[in-house]
Each structure stands twice: as structure tokens, then as C-alpha cells.
Amino acid sequence: MTTEQDFVYVLIDGENIDRTLGQILDAKPRPEQRPRWDRVRQFAEKAFGKEARALFYLNASRGLPGTFIQALRLAGYTPIPLTGTAEQKVVDIAIIRTLEEIKNRPGDVLLISHDTDFRESFGALNDGTRSLGILAFQEYLSGDYLDLEGIKLYDLEDDASAFAGGPLPRVRVIPIDDFDPRRFLV
Fold first, then answer.
1. pLDDT in tens, 140-165
2. CA angle 162-100-79, nearest 5°?
3. Which long-range contacts (C-beta less than 8 Å, at least 24 apart) are formed by 90-96?
């Protein structure tokens, strides 16, 4: 008899993260400016205390980015390159289908996206039997997720330490207890 292993499923909306990072940088991110995906997987395993089953969804309508696919595999991800018609949001469709399938098996979920399109399918997993989290740039996360009780919110830069180099040029709300004027006087 085979039993299903209890993972933390890490679902990455590659398009959304890249687009949001581009907004923060005010330019298309260069490879060295993108998240260190191995750090993200390690963060998920530490935060959830389970082995990660990391899935990276990307739109491959313009071709397969071979070097990036290889880098993802080396970082412990299963790349999922998708294609469809021009009007289809293939990454969103695939993530929603994955969330619906996860409902039928054990495991926690860490969603990495800012997109509101997953709210219903992700929220349906919030039945008290699993831990759920969203890893994103908090200031860009859709407010539709904020009313889901029990969902842990993590910051891609601060909590997962996903970026090498200095801090990203983000503009975000700062709780007064966390305000450090030295950061702005540099």
C-alpha cells in the first residue's frame, strides 16, 4: 500500500513575480536581480518543517528558456512550461488546477504570487487541516487574501532572503516601531 508523503507544495507564479519585480526595479530584471530560488525552497522547508515539492510555472509561448529551466532543476524545482492560446492565462489556469488537486491530498501550501486569481482555490484549502502561506512583496499582494484567517504572509525579500546584494528599491508602509531613519539617510 502506497501512502502519500506530506509535503509543503511551493507553487510559483513565475510571470507574476517577474512582472512585479520589474515594477519595483522600474526595468526588466536582469538574471542577477531575480530571486535566488534555492533560498526560497529552503525557506519553505524551514518555515513549514517539511520537504518542499517546488513547482515553477512559466509561460513558454515564446519558447523554452533552456538555461533557466536547467537552473530551476538544479535549485530543486520542477519547471512547468506552459503554452496555450493568446487569450489564455496558462500559468493561472495551471496553478488553479494544481490547487484544486492538492485539496485531495495531504500537504501544506506556499503560494508565491500577488495575483488575486488564485484566491478562491487557495482559500478552499483553508479547512484547518493544513498550513497555508503566501510569499510575495507584501505591498503588491492583492488585498483579497487579507481576509483569509490563518494564512501566514511572508515577504520574499525580508523573510525568505531571496535576493543577493543590497535591499531592493521598494516603497512600502513601515510600522512606526520598525522605522529606522538611518536607512533613509544613506
1. 999 999 889 999 999 999 999 999 98
2. 40
3. 90/59, 90/61, 91/13, 91/14, 91/15, 91/16, 91/57, 91/58, 91/59, 92/13, 92/117, 92/118, 94/57, 95/11, 95/13, 95/57, 95/121, 96/121
d(CA 82, CA 183): 41
Alpha helices in 4-87 (DSSP H): 14-25, 37-48, 66-74
Indicate whether 65 belongs to any domain: yes
3-state secondary structure of 113: coil
Name the residue among 51, 61, 33, 43 with its Cα closest to residue 163: 33
Q: Which three cell numbers mark 102? A: 492538492
Q: Which three cell numbers stand for residue 14?
A: 513565475
Domain of 99 in residue numbering reads as: 8-183
Q: Which helix (H) or strand (E) segment is 120 a member of? A: helix 119-123
134 and 141 Cβ atoms separated by less than 8 Å: yes
What number is the average pLDDT over the span 85-111? 96
Residue 2 resides in a domain? no
Give pLDDT, residue 65.
85
Q: pTM for the whole thing?
A: 0.91
Does residue 1 sit within a domain? Answer: no
